[in-house]
Design goal:
hydrolase; Rossmann fold; 3 domains; about 575 residues; helicase; nucleus; alpha/beta; binds adenosine-5'-triphosphate; 8-stranded mixed β-sheet; single chain
């Protein structure tokens, strides 16, 4: 590739505007790009391997819902191509520093480190807490799902687990209670049905001696439609395994449902009102029901089913399950606990956690793992997002010092930049201003990275200046403020960045310095901030010409051609 072609790509990558590029053309020899020649990503390594896998992860499943391929989304945009170039460049630098920066999708399971798992969860917008959370599923086969169930999954044609399935299934297979917060359409049914079927498969088969004792598993849902949707999804898995599902919902005669129950059913799907009715008429008992799922629990409570739910849950067996009371010692969040025996496995899915649902969870679930997927737990709700148009590196550094000296945001604070050279320059500027800044970018080796993160944890450093790739999967608590010294190249990268603050229920703040060069992501940024109930789109961004509509690839091409001219 010729130097002028290279220069054209670089200036496009840098997104410089027409006026600047004209000046640059005149003084070409003096201008130094933001990376060293030897870091050039345009040599033989394919950038695709670096970035497409992460982007690929987002193609399959958007944040918490099954997203189709979207050719206007960030995946297709050339900017993503730039991001891949940037990621690839950072990976090359990291490799030179002796760091293994392969994306998790390029690693065998046994080489996955904690940071890879943190990046994996970020890629699928998975967060989980509750102590001793098992790793999420990278694929169906890398799991302890029984073979006969894996064969059914393959027949159904589910190529990849959805985000909620990736995290809920490994936890469910441990027979551990779960609270799942995920949107409708995210694949919750399979997320609770697969562990449920693994559990039932270990129980004695239904015979005339035990079928009258009622179902082994019960799934409750707020409406008849949802219960029937869950029934049809559950049948896909249960029927090939020889298990019977029966739904008990309003709108059907009790006689008909009595008829359907005459041979018993391992799994019952029901709306609480009708189920309570059928129990009171002694048409059904729950004497051997050891697996309970409440789906869309917030809607069940909002529809007035709280009392019915309590009635039903109080009729479940209370004696301990065989072999469960093993007194096994375990460490949960540093506290030694003895695994108490349990009478059942209880899973609760909900899009929100209003007080009545919280009360249900506290009363009927034991040491639940709490899984949050995508939007439900995204920064959008807990991070106040601000934007300031600041042109020039010096002005930006001065502005950061003003923010820091206002003492409005206690350390640690993270400053994100787009290139490693910028990271070094910003850290020096902050140090000149009397602030101790640690640096994290792919030019740093593992020891330097650990030292940087450690200095932040011990308080030796107040600020971490990081690039996107190096900033992925970092585990720094209580970040009060994220500053985007340069706007991220894509809105996904922006959301990952601001997600470093506003965690564990605390509110955080993100301040982004914008310039006219950020025209490609301005519309997406305006949309993202508009979604936040605690943020306001600044007038300057709201009125900016580039924020009025999503820039199609055609428009980007035209604008670049103009710039080239
Ligand atoms: N891993 C997967 N791969 C492909 N399609 C899936 C996968 N999991 C679920 N689906 C499909 O996605 C759709 C939504 O699934 P599901 O009904 O479980 O979503 P949900 O609304 O989250 O669950 P629920 O109905 O329990 O609230 C269904 O058509 C289902 O067949």
């Amino acid at each position: 590739m010729t130097e002028s072609e290279m220069s054209a790509i670089r200036s496009r990558y840098l997104g410089v505007d027409k006026k600047k590029r004209k000046i640059r053309k005149m003084n070409d020899r003096k201008f130094v790009f933001d990376w060293d020649a030897q870091d050039d990503t345009l040599n033989n390594e394919s950038p695709a391997a670096a970035g497409i896998n992460r982007q690929g992860a987002q193609i399959m499943f958007g944040r918490g819902h099954l997203a189709g391929l979207d050719d206007t989304g960030p995946i297709a945009s050339r900017r993503t191509g730039d991001v891949q170039l940037a990621d690839a460049r950072e990976r090359r630098q990291a490799a030179k520093a002796g760091l293994d920066e392969r994306h998790w999708s390029e690693k065998p399971l046994e080489e996955m480190r904690d940071r890879d798992w943190r990046i994996f969860r970020e890629d699928f917008s998975i967060s989980a807490r509750g102590g001793q959370i098992p790793h999420p599923l990278r694929s169906w086969t890398e799991s302890s799902i029984p073979v006969q169930i894996l064969e059914v999954i393959e027949k159904i044609g589910y190529k990849e687990p959805s985000p909620i399935q990736r995290q809920a299934i490994p936890i469910g297979l441990q027979n551990r209670d779960i609270i799942g917060i995920a949107e409708t359409g995210s694949g919750k049914t399979a997320a609770f049905v697969i562990p449920m079927l693994a559990f039932i498969s270990r129980l004695p088969p239904f015979t005339d001696e035990n079928r009258h004792l009622g179902p082994y598993a019960l799934i409750m849902a707020p409406t008849r439609e949802l219960a029937q949707q869950i029934e049809s999804e559950t049948r896909k898995f249960a029927s090939p395994l020889g298990f019977k599902c029966v739904s008990i919902v309003g709108g059907r005669s009790v006689e008909e449902q009595q008829f359907n129950l005459r041979e018993g059913a391992e799994i019952i799907i029901a709306t609480p009102g009708r189920l309570k009715d059928v129990i009171e008429r002694h048409v059904l008992v729950l004497s051997q029901c050891r697996y309970v799922v409440m789906d869309e629990a917030d809607r069940m409570v909002n529809l007035g089913f709280e009392a019915d739910l309590l009635f039903i849950l109080d009729r479940l067996p209370s004696e301990l399950m065989e072999g469960e009371d093993n007194g096994e010692q375990m460490d949960v969040d540093g506290e030694t606990m003895v695994r108490k025996g349990r009478s059942r496995v209880t899973t609760l899915f909900s899009a929100t956690m209003p007080p009545p649902v919280e009360r249900l969870a506290k009363k009927y679930l034991k040491r639940p793992a709490v899984i949050t997927i995508g939007e439900a737990g995204r920064a959008v709700d807990t991070v106040e997002q601000k934007v300031e148009f600041v042109a020039g590196d010096e002005k930006k550094i001065q502005r950061i010092l003003e923010i820091l000296n206002s003492n409005q945001y206690p350390p640690p604070i993270i400053v994100f930049v787009n290139q490693k050279k910028t990271a070094d320059m910003v850290a020096k500027g902050l140090q000149r201003g009397g602030w101790n800044a640690a640096i994290l970018h792919s030019g740093k080796n593992q020891e330097q990275r650990e030292a940087a993160l450690n200095s932040l944890r011990t308080g030796d450093a107040d600020i971490l200046v990081a690039t996107d790739l190096a900033g992925r999967g970092i585990d720094v608590q209580d970040v009060s403020l994220v500053i985007n010294f340069q706007m991220a190249n894509t809105i996904e990268a922006y959301v990952h960045r601001i997600g470093r603050t506003g965690r564990a229920g605390k509110q955080g703040t993100a301040i982004t310095f914008l310039t006219n060069e950020d025209y490609e992501v301005m519309y997406d940024l305006k949309q993202e901030i508009s979604k936040s109930p605690i943020s306001k789109v600044s007038i300057e961004l709201a009125k900016h010409e580039a924020a009025q509509h999503k820039m199609s690839r055609e428009m980007k091409r035209k604008r670049d051609a103009e710039d080239e001219g």
